[in-house]
């Protein structure tokens, strides 16, 4: 016993060491993770040996001698037990692990590393349902005034008075980006207003998928407003998916058509200032909205109103005044307060040496 | 029905993709990954519609001799010529020395770089307006920007060694605090928008008239 203890405390060359093999957790299966203690004198490299049931150990990989973990994902079958062994290379050095206990790879039904996201989503979902229920029972909430959203109708009205059009730029991301989806939702509201006021609307799209969706949204909005006859097929047009070619085309529209209102709502990158500054030079009233933090300063400088982050996503509920949508907005505000309280609590606990809450919400 | 079926598809797909985010099991993950591939296939098909739109709108403007119609001819010829040359070169269209690459590098890259370079002038004019000190906030902004710009260039450390440190502090503390606040709000907005679509209460993107 004493000898074993000494051997574990002071492992020597030629002495076997334990090797742990377990099914890799939180994955889709087909993976086994090996782990072992660092050796006092690590070999140049390790040869990894694997044995399927009833078969001899065969080498499957060679890895660095300084490593202490290894994940085998080389053709493993879920539900089959595999044994492993490590042998030091070069072979003259008699250092090898004991064979591991059998490990059975399998697929997980829930990724436990995402439990924090699941908790926040579940709370948020419950709050959304609760506030929607409240709104359906007639509860009315007050929200702070968002000047940029109030200005949208004002800008469209100004365009109507001036006999000019409204330019709606839905950003430069494709339809699978949530900012573009939010932009399409706002476009529905804007198109209803332009249809009501009989104001020309121009929507240049930088992706054919965005063009297809935007065209349907505008067509639907004109139909809803009872102005299906006013819808024109060239209102929404596909320009190009190339970033700066798109900027050139949209800037050209601003300078030629001289719309009285430019609505820049979506995901923007390097083109944000090129568009906003050109629009500023034409004298149009400009309302921008994006969740791309790095582009916000450019819009703040060059536009009359800027929807910042969450204001942009709140636009649809704010403009439509639909009680159920406003209920989801209330849920958003409530969870924000809860998150702020959680951050303060985690900070306080961390200050006193309790890191559990902070670690639970860590994503990396 | 024209309205309910798309809403139902959105709802079912949305819930499935949301669940798929948490479940690594192949029974769910395989279809989850397939759906991501379907997006690429659907987008590929929309390119046909997009190109048809470009050609139809510009051809109509040419045939009606609308304003700037000669430029539309240049566009149509450019689109068609690039497509024909690209298709004729098959899978080698991006190889070094291919005609398609020559068109891209000679025409498009040069014009895109020209557009991008305009940003320098636009930044100058925007900065001129942003840094006009009219209010206390504008004054603070101008001071912060002045310190940051000096701290980020070599001459800053020659003027005073504290300038680069002050610039780093501005970026790390006040700027980061504000940025993270905005990002948190935006993330909640993303979740709220997603839930609204999944639950089918966000119907602004659909037509009432179609139901």
Write the layout of secondary structure elements.
The complex is a heterodimer of chains A (364) and B (211).
Chain A (H helix, E strand, L loop, with lengths): L1 H8 L10 E4 L8 E4 L9 E7 L6 E7 L4 E4 L10 E7 L25 H22 L10 H16 L3 E4 L8 H20 L3 E5 L2 H17 L11 E3 L4 H15 L3 E5 L5 H12 L2 E6 L5 H7 L2 E4 L1 H11 L2 H29 L4 H6 L3
Parallel strand pairs in A: 7-8, 7-10, 8-9, 10-11, 11-12
Antiparallel strand pairs in A: 1-2, 2-5, 3-4, 3-6
Helix pairs in contact in A: 2-10, 3-4, 4-5, 4-9, 6-7, 9-10
Chain B lengths: L3 H19 L3 H38 L5 H20 L10 H32 L5 H16 L2 H6 L2 H37 L13
Helix pairs in contact in B: 1-2, 2-3, 5-7
Q: How do the strands of the widest beta sheet of chain A line up side by side?
A: 9-8-7-10-11-12
Structural class of chain B: mainly alpha
Low-confidence stretches of chain B: none
Distance between the termini of chain B: 6 Å
Q: Quickly count the domains of chain B.
A: 2
Percent range for helical residues of chain B? over 70%
Q: What structural class should be given to the helix and strand makeup of chain A? A: alpha/beta
Q: What characteristic shape of chain B results from the CA principal axes?
A: extended
Q: Specify the helix fraction band of chain A.
A: 40-55%
User: What is the H/E order of chain A?
Assistant: HEEEEEEHHEHEHEHEHEHEHHH
Could you spell the SSE succession of chain B in H and E letters? HHHHHHH
* Bulk shape of chain A: elongated
For the sheet with most strands of chain A, the description reads: 6 strands, parallel
Assembly state here?
heterodimer
**Strand elements of chain B, count:** 0
* CA-based gyration radius of chain B: 26 Å
Straight-line distance between termini of chain A: 42 Å
Total number of helices of chain B = 7
């Amino acid at each position: 016993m004493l000898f074993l203890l000494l051997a574990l405390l002071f492992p020597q060359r030629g002495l076997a060491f334990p090797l742990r093999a377990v099914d890799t957790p939180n994955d889709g299966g087909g993976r086994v993770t090996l782990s072992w203690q660092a050796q006092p004198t690590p070999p140049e490299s390790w040869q990894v040996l694997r044995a399927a049931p009833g078969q001899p150990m065969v080498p499957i990989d060679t890895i660095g001698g300084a490593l202490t973990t290894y994940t085998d994902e080389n053709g493993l079958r879920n539900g089959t037990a595999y044994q492993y062994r490590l042998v030091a290379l070069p072979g003259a050095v008699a250092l090898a692990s004991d064979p591991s206990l059998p490990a059975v790879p399998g697929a997980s039904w829930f990724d436990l590393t995402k439990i924090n996201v699941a908790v926040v989503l579940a709370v948020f979902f419950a709050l959304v349902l609760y506030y929607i229920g409240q709104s359906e029972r007639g509860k009315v909430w007050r929200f702070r005034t968002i000047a940029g959203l109030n200005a949208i109708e004002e800008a469209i009205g100004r365009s109507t008075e001036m006999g000019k059009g409204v330019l709606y730029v839905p950003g430069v991301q494709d339809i699978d980006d949530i900012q573009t989806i939010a932009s399409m939702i706002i476009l529905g509201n804007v198109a209803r207003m332009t249809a009501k006021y009989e104001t020309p609307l121009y929507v240049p799209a930088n992706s054919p998928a965005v063009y297809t969706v935007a065209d349907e949204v505008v067509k639907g909005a004109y139909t809803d407003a009872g102005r299906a006859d006013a819808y024109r097929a060239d209102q929404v047009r596909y320009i190009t998916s190339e970033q700066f070619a798109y900027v050139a085309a949209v800037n050209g529209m601003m300078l030629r058509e001289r719309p009285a209102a430019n609505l820049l709502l979506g995901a923007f990158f390097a083109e944000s200032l090129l568009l906003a500054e050109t629009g500023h030079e034409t004298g149009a009233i400009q309302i921008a909205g994006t969740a791309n933090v790095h582009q916000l300063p450019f819009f703040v400088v060059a536009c009359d109103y800027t929807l910042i982050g969450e204001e942009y996503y709140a636009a649809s509920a704010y403009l439509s005044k639909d009680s159920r949508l406003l209920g989801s907005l209330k849920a958003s505000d409530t969870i924000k307060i809860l998150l702020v309280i959680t951050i303060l609590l985690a900070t306080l606990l961390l200050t006193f040496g309790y890191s559990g809450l902070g670690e639970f919400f860590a994503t990396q | 029905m024209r309205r309910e079926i798309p809403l139902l598809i959105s709802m079912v797909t949305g819930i499935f993709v949301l669940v798929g985010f948490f479940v690594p099991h192949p029974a769910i993950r395989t279809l989850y990954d397939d759906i991501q591939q379907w997006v690429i296939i659907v987008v590929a098909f929309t390119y046909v519609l997009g190109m048809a739109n470009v050609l139809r709108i510009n051809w109509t403007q040419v045939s009606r001799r609308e304003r700037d119609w000669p430029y539309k001819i240049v566009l149509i010829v450019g689109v068609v010529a690039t497509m024909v040359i690209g298709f004729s070169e098959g899978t080698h269209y991006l190889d070094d020395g291919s005609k398609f690459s020559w068109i891209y590098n000679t025409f498009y890259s040069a014009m895109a770089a020209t557009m991008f370079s305009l940003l320098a002038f636009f930044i100058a004019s925007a900065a001129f307006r942003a840094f006009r000190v009219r209010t206390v906030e504008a004054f603070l902004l101008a001071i912060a920007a002045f310190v940051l710009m000096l701290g980020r260039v070599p001459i800053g450390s020659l003027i005073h060694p504290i300038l680069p440190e002050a610039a780093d502090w501005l970026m790390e503390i006040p700027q980061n605090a504000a940025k993270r606040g905005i990002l948190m709000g935006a993330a909640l907005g993303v979740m709220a928008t997603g839930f609204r679509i999944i639950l089918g209460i966000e119907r602004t993107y659909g037509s009432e008239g179609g139901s």
